[in-house]
Every structure is written in structure tokens, then in C-alpha cells.
Amino acid sequence: MHRDNRTAACAVPLFPFLLMLVFALMRSFRFPRSTASIIKGLALMVSIIATSASAQRTATPPADGVYDLLVGTYTGPKSEGIDVYRFDTKTGAATRVSGAQTVNPSYLVASRDGRFVYAVNELPGDNGPATQRGGISAFAFDATSGQLTFLNKVSSDGNDPCYLSLSPDGRYLTTANYSVAADPGGSFAVFPLEADGKLGTAVLSVHHEGGGPVKGRQDNAHVHSTVFSPDGQYLFAQDLGADKLFVYRYTPDGSRGLFGPTERRYVEMEAGSGPRHLVFAPDGKHAYLTSELAATVTVFRYSDGNLTPIQTLPMTKPGFNGQVAAAAIHVSPDGRFVYASNRGDANEIVVYAVDPANGHLHEVGRQSSLGQAPREFSIDPTGHWLIVGNQNSDTAYVFRRDVQSGLLDANPTRLDIGAPVDFVWVSPS
């Protein structure tokens, strides 16, 4: 299963074996203290590599190049929930095979083995009662037939859940609740995952406080994404309302609580910028952030739970005076390009090339999404295609992607889908 930078983890048998071998050698031989320290360091490296590999590895690509593509939507007259397509990465053709009814599955994530799919139920939405909690739904997924089977649903412990992330060890699911009516301000909640794929009720809910200068959008905190670090030891919660990236240490053994604040606690962004989505580079050394209200992309250097901003770029063309609303951000599979979507009056995908020496970005192109409100998009596991959903136009477009230049072909294939807003790739093999 491939999920851009959202893949869940499962055990990687080789790494535990190597770790046990290292410690066995330590017991069998009497190394000098300095040598033993080196070996302990190597053991730690093996552990970190195991976690990182677990989080980033994908299933073996199917021989025929055909993946299952799951599309999350806002439900309404033209959509009932999650649509499942068969996507041929050799031709770019997509054929609908099934669907599952569920309310406002605006964000999806699949287990690394592709057996389970989790969806937010983004409620109450714009028209529902403020007291109504959102939900998280679990499904079993048969990748061979493309069929989803509902397992269970739990409260998201907040309002308007809009993001999901699986811990690298596969034990927990986190969600970003954009708002919490009973306690104004956003939160993130943590749910245990059972062996049969079902969700347990929330074991932790963390509320943020604060706000920003943009009236109506930053009157209080609004958590918009929860992203695990590549080493699996930290969780970053991007708060659009508070202009902060909160940092939590993940300690599943309970020695410091399940999630606890780090000494630094948060990275403060420019006032009124509205940080939205964060994504890490494949090498784990850099991260990229979209700030929705400012329509910018920020580059960070990453090390051991610390994000250091090193560059910020505008997403709009010089002289652009329309409305902006930066949204999704993803990195190409080879790590050479970063893509970000901008809604408002721009409605386009901006393409940046990555400088391998320092992670800095420079713009190399931009492509109209050919519709309104490109909230999310995704690059297929082969890197040859990019699909973007136009929420307000009930369309998705499949663009051929040049892996050398990073540019998108201007003649894409159109798919008619009601309010498409998220995409997940699953390998049937």
C-alpha cells in the first residue's frame, strides 16, 4: 500500500533480527567500553532505521501496474461516501469498481498492508449543530475485489475532524479536530487500533489554546493536521488558528505518557499565516509546510524532534491580488520535487524543484487544476501520474507527470466525481 507520506507501519522482520544480533554479540564478547558504546550506537541506529523503514516502505508494486485508488468525498447529491477505482499506472486509466456509504469521508488513510481503511466523518460541517461530534469510521478492504466492508465507528472527540495519521508502529490512529464546540479551540485525539482493524474509543484528547490576527479564521485554535516524524518518535500538530506547529514526544511504552510536550513545545510561525499541512522529505532531513491563509510554502531542516525554518516561498504569482487558500502538499516518490495546491481564485498546483544540497525549493512550473477548490491531490506510487480533486466542481483530473522535469501535462483525463477531496493508493498484490 502506498499513501504518499501517510503510510502505516508493520513489522519489518529483518530489523528486529539485526537488533537482537547486535546485543547477542555484546553479551558474547568483552569489548572495551568505547567499543561497546559504538555498538550501542549502532543498535540505536538499527532501531531508528527499522522505525523509519516501517513508516515509509510500500508494498511490492503489482506486476500489471494496476492499483486500487480510493477517493474520499464530501457527501451530497453526487456522492455517497468513498469511491473505489482501478487505476492503471501504465495508461492512467481509472475505472470505478465499488463504493461505500459514509458521511463526509474528507480524509482517508489505509493500513500499510492495505487490509483496513479509516475515514473521518467530518461533522457537523457548515450546517450541522455545533454540539454534534465528528466521527472516525473503520473499514475492512479487500484489495483484490475492491470492496469495502464497514467495521465500526467512534466519536472523533471533537468537531470537524479533517486529518488522520497512523503511528509508525501501527498501534494508534490520530485525528485532527478542526474545532471543539464545547471547549472552543481545536484538538487532536488518539485512538487504539485493534487486531481486527476496529477502532477503540479515544484514549487521549489534547486541546490547544490561542488564536491569531485573522478574524473569523483564527478566533481560536484549529488543528489541521497531525504528522509523525520519520523516526517515529514525535508527532507534529499543525494549528491553523494559533499559528504554531506543536511538537509531542511519542512514547508508547508509557514511560513519559503516550504523547507529551517536548521541551521546545512548538514552532511559532508568522502571525496570520495559518499553518495547514506538513510533509517530510523521503530522506527525513527536511519537511515542507503549506500555510493556508498566507498561501506560502515553508522549508524546514529536521533533526531529533526539531524543525528549523530555512526558507519561505509565496505560492502566488507576483502581482496576484485574488483570494488564496493554500491546501495540500506532497513530495514526489524520488524526493526531487514538491507539489502544493492553492485554492481561492488561483486553483492551481505549484511545482517546486528540491535542491539536494540544502532542501531549498525553487519554482519550476504551475498547472491549473481545471476546476474550483483543489483541496487535495496525490501522486501515484510510480510517480508518473498526479490526480487532483476539485471539490467545488465535482471533477478530478489525472495529469501525466514528467519524472525528469516534474512538470504536469496540460491535457489530463477528467473523472466526474461528486466533491472529491482525498485519495489513497492500495496495491492489490
TrEMBL record:
InterPro entries found in the cross-reference section: Cycloisomerase_2, Haem_d1_sf, Lactonase_7-beta_prop, WD40/YVTN_repeat-like_dom_sf
Top-level enzyme category: hydrolase
SUPFAM superfamilies documented for this protein: C-terminal (heme d1) domain of cytochrome cd1-nitrite reductase (SSF51004)
GO cellular component: cytosol
Pfam families assigned to the protein according to its UniProt record, in alphabetical order: Lactonase (PF10282)
EC code: 3.1.1.31
MF-aspect GO terms: 6-phosphogluconolactonase activity
One BP term from GO: glucose metabolic process
Residue spans crossing the bilayer: 6-26
UniProt KW keywords: Carbohydrate metabolism, Glucose metabolism, Hydrolase, Membrane, Transmembrane, Transmembrane helix
Homology family: Belongs to the cycloisomerase 2 family.
Protein name in UniProt: 6-phosphogluconolactonase
